[in-house]
Design brief:
The structure is a homodimer.
Chain A lengths: L15 E14 L2 E7 L4 E7 L5 H9 L5 E10 L7 E12 L13 H6 L1 H4 L3 H23 L3 E2 L5 E2 L11 E3 L5 E4 L4 H11 L1 E9 L12 E10 L3 H22 L1 H6 L4 H5 L7 E3 H10 L12 H8 L6 E7 L9 E2 L2 E12 L4 E8 L4 H10 L8 H8 L5 E7 H9 L20
Parallel strand pairs in A: 3-5, 6-10, 12-13
Antiparallel strand pairs in A: 1-2, 1-4, 2-3, 4-5, 7-9, 8-9, 10-11, 11-17, 13-15, 14-15, 15-16, 16-17
Helix pairs in contact in A: 4-6, 4-13
């Protein structure tokens, strides 16, 4: 027998179907009980009239605890006032398994309590909506690159050397090979991939053992990193804006109901259309100064600075050409001003901060060697990376998009902890 | 200017285009030089006649080292004898960057040397073909679940406790919370997801610090794990066979050229159609005994045993109902014979071994508690998992598919080390 799901009920109007799921909520009004069933695809109001079911089933409808699992049978009717637009006239109700004293009730709970019960909290309508939007974002990301002939290039998670110091890295013993470290970025590997395949993206978890306890930081987060041979910084910005527009418009198109559940102001998302403003770091500093921010030229933008800059625009803003001092060693210098790096950060609107960081990469072997020395990095660890410049070096660029910050922005969430099924933060690695 | 890629040349016949890429190979015949260009999307034979280009360009075509990067311009012609079916009549050739003494030459190299140069080895036609098939497999996996309304549920990589002993786990210090461990499977978390969303899949890297130095083992490998509420073991097998057929047929349809490059016998893959044979463990043991294998009833199947069983069939075979002793604590017992677990392993044909392991899960709280005690597991670490049985438990099942073994099977590779961009094995975590 074909399983029936709540989201497909429009095909079953005036038919009798059996649904399996969990009791989300209930209320009673004398001889009629209302059972709200959830099955992961939606909610359905099931109406139990005393005369229509056995006395046992009617009593069950009364006594069942929240999250009891049920099989419930009845006729589907159109009912515009019900959530989802349908209602079931129940003819039978069978308990599958009880749920006594379910810990998450409709009353308010503290966040720490909910995070302790994350395995159950995921069942709430709000968390289901967030996870479905997260999924749609991930699918949009993959579709975008797949449709444009990028090849997926999974970068390794376990990496051999602590290239930029061990202070923000998770370490593990690796057999007889000494310490190994969890990756912070797949970029350097994606560069090797771009030289083999032209256009690649890596997509996987990345790790940062940073002691940042903010609403934007997780120790474990997912990142997608495209890298394209023969792309310069402008191509990189073209790719980033087309990419972000595609993600946001895909979610708007296919996840309207979930955005409604989250009470997201979608007019803010509808504005996310190309072209995005492109301003230089110098122009960003001007904006800060005009807004009375005491910002010292040469520093990197902090969280508040990002918010002030992004508040000037109704869509993501691309800030390019940062002082090379505050940017990574592998970024190419601007030929017109070698104090600047050919970097770009994309700041989300509404104060959601940096969601993309990218750059054109240094493709000159000698300059890269110089930079490695200046940054006091161990050249030996980079020999393989330097080979990419020794053997047919080409201009290339790429960027990284953080998934959880993107989910937070699109869903309109205060804190990234709700953007991933089981968040990892400095004070939490359970459940 | 729109970039032109080799794979799109059918649109540019009799037009003059510029291509950027790397010198894959070359040969000379007096006044004509043949330069094979690669750009990640294919190979193109470029013909350089002495009179058609500047003397500098002609000399360059002669002297360029393998993997030099080039921009090459000329008219595209149909040429059925050329790889890909097109040829370029070169009018200009510009060097972008040299490549002197490229270490991987057409001669044979040892595997360890090639693995040391993996960042360059990826550029070979064979490795490009494998990565493109890997990508197509990953895409088929995601499409399959997305089209069937599964929700993606990323399981955490960093997990709090060493549930089944620490001997095969990678450990890391986690701030003030003590040791944490890299996940071996997202299944338990996917079960929580199935209770929230009905049908979910987790897809990410998993880790095993096992000292197995075989051609089937990596320490870091990717796994996809669907989990479905209200599915029993039969549903699980239905899902697994539909899934494997979908993956194999997708690759056959879209990656014929890459399979040809790998000299894969595709008749073997064409046979991968539903229904797959389903045999019980008892029947598998009979097959072993009939084939003269000295196999003791009650043991798990080893690599050789798997090969003998799978060689009886022309498509994947599903072996179900194993002795519960050799299977994990969370598997449900067969109500008709409690000595058996409702487990299924899917063995790939041609000796590629187990690619799927799955089961119906124990949904009874008391039996699960009993099992945790028998296996001497720390109950406290499983309290959250037990909650899934305390609050509206339902029958459910799922499985895990290992990506690298699937890639090895479909590509017809001897060893899993070539199935992933940067393989991690007990004696290798570089580059």
């Amino acid at each position: 027998m074909q399983k029936v799901y709540i989201k497909d009920l429009s095909q079953y109007v005036d038919q009798t179907v059996s649904l399996k799921g969990w009791l989300y909520n209930k209320r009673s009004s004398g001889k009629v009980k209302f059972v709200i069933l959830r099955d992961g695809t939606g909610l359905l109001q099931c109406v139990v009239f005393k005369g229509n079911v056995t006395p046992e089933a009617f009593e069950a409808a009364d006594k069942l605890g929240q999250e009891s699992s049920l099989e419930i049978t009845g006729k589907i009717k159109i009912e515009s006032r019900a959530p989802g637009g349908y209602e079931m006239d129940v003819t039978d109700l069978k308990l599958i398994a009880e749920s006594v004293d379910y810990p998450i009730t409709p009353k308010e709970h503290g966040v720490e309590f909910l995070m302790d019960k994350r395995h159950l909290w995921l069942r709430s309508q709000r968390q289901v909506a967030i996870l479905k939007i997260r999924h749609r974002i991930v699918k949009a990301i993959r579709d975008f690159f797949d449709e444009r002939d990028f090849t997926l290039m999974d970068a390794p998670i376990i990496t051999p050397s602590a290239c930029e110091g061990t202070s923000t890295l998770f370490a593990t013993d690796y057999f007889d090979l000494g310490k190994a470290y969890l990756t912070q970025s797949g970029q350097l590997y994606a560069e090797a991939g771009a030289m083999a395949l032209g256009k690649v993206y890596s997509f996987g978890p990345t790790f940062r053992a940073e002691k940042s306890k903010t609403r934007r930081h997780l120790t474990e987060f997912w990142m997608v990193e495209p890298e394209v041979a023969f792309n310069d910084l402008n191509d990189d910005m073209d790719l980033a804006e087309e990419f972000l527009e595609y993600i946001v418009q895909s979610v708007l198109k296919d996840r309207a109901e979930e955005l409604r559940i989250l009470e997201r102001d979608t007019t803010k998302l509808e504005a996310v259309k190309r072209p995005f403003p492109r301003i230089s770091y110098d122009e960003a500093v001007e904006i800060l100064h005009k807004n009375g921010i005491d910002f010292e030229y040469g520093n990197d933008l902090g969280g508040t600075d990002e918010t002030v800059v992004s508040n000037q625009f109704d869509r993501p803003v691309m800030v390019h050409r940062y002082p090379s001092e505050v940017k990574a060693f592998y970024m190419k210098r601007d030929p017109e001003n070698p104090k600047l790096a050919l970097a770009v950060d994309v700041l989300a609107p509404e104060g959601y901060g940096e969601i993309i960081g990218g750059s054109q990469r240094e493709d000159n072997l000698d300059l890269l060697l110089e930079r490695i020395e200046q940054h006091q990095l161990p050249q030996e660890a980079f020999e393989w990376y330097l080979d990419l410049r020794r053997f047919g070096s080409v201009p290339h660029s790429g960027f990284g998009l953080g998934i959880e910050r993107t989910v937070a922005w699109i869903c309109g969430l205060e804190h990234v902890r709700e953007t991933i099924p089981f968040a990892r933060m400095i004070y939490r690695n359970t459940p």
